[in-house]
């Protein structure tokens, strides 16, 4: 039975991916740090999905997650590096603490989690980074957030080459506007979301389940590596 780790897997895209991979026969372990989303995930995810509390910024927590995987499963076949945070504000409003927090969670945490679990990844395994479309197409008031995510995107081709001798594939997904709880956290009113949806060629926001389908594809796509797949309903295309 294949095994998968999903960081930031207790809500939104991560939780949807955990549920989908479980339905497709994976043993799944997810991480999160918010007590509310952890409790919800434990209640709503299928029985057998392992939920572990881990702070993406903490290297000791990354060690603990790797040991949990080793103890429970022995090895991994897929790693979805999905944990991340966003801060929407003008460049001049960022302070050092916020800048550091964004890079600690979005870059440092994901890099070192991967480093810790890489010895457990089977030959022919799959690594998928969740980057976001803003890293390549811009996001107003999102300069530091998308810079951090863009750092992940820059890792993809180099890691794809480095890990190719083990037949481990490294790819990224870049979701566009997806209907998750992050919009409410950022204070977006419904009329603003409606305007965003109207600007998308397919005329709506995407769903977490639709992004999860692309993650599942990359987990199994044996001849795809070094790529970034945009999941955005045509966002950014000319009319």
From TrEMBL:
<dbReference type="InterPro" id="IPR036291">
    <property type="entry name" value="NAD(P)-bd_dom_sf"/>
</dbReference>
<dbReference type="InterPro" id="IPR002347">
    <property type="entry name" value="SDR_fam"/>
</dbReference>
<keyword id="KW-0560">Oxidoreductase</keyword>
<protein>
    <submittedName>
        <fullName>SDR family oxidoreductase</fullName>
    </submittedName>
</protein>
<dbReference type="Pfam" id="PF13561">
    <property type="entry name" value="adh_short_C2"/>
</dbReference>
<comment type="similarity">
    <text>Belongs to the short-chain dehydrogenases/reductases (SDR) family.</text>
</comment>
């Amino acid at each position: 039975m294949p095994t998968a780790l999903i960081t930031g897997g207790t809500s939104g895209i991560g939780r949807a991916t955990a549920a989908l991979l479980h339905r497709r026969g994976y043993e799944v372990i997810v991480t999160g740090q918010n007590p509310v989303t952890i409790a919800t995930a434990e209640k709503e995810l299928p029985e057998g999905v392992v939920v572990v509390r881990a702070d993406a910024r903490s290297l000791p927590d990354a060690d603990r997650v790797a040991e949990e995987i080793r103890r429970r499963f022995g090895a991994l076949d897929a790693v979805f590096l999905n944990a991340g945070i966003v801060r929407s504000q003008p460049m001049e409003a960022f302070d050092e603490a916020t800048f550091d927090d964004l890079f600690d969670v979005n870059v440092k945490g994901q890099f070192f989690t991967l480093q810790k679990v890489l010895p457990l990844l089977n030959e022919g395994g799959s690594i998928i980074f969740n980057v976001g479309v803003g890293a390549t197409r811009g996001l107003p008031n999102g300069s530091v957030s998308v810079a951090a995510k863009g750092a992940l995107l820059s890792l993809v081709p180099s890691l794809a080459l480095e890990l190719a001798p083990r037949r481990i594939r490294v790819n990224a997904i870049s979701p566009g506007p997806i209907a998750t709880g992050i919009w409410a956290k950022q204070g977006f009113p419904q009329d603003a979301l409606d305007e965003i949806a109207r600007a998308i060629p397919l005329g709506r926001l995407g769903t977490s389940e639709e992004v999860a389908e692309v993650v599942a594809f990359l987990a199994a796509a044996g001849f795809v590596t070094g790529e970034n797949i945009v999941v955005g309903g045509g966002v950014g295309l000319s009319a």
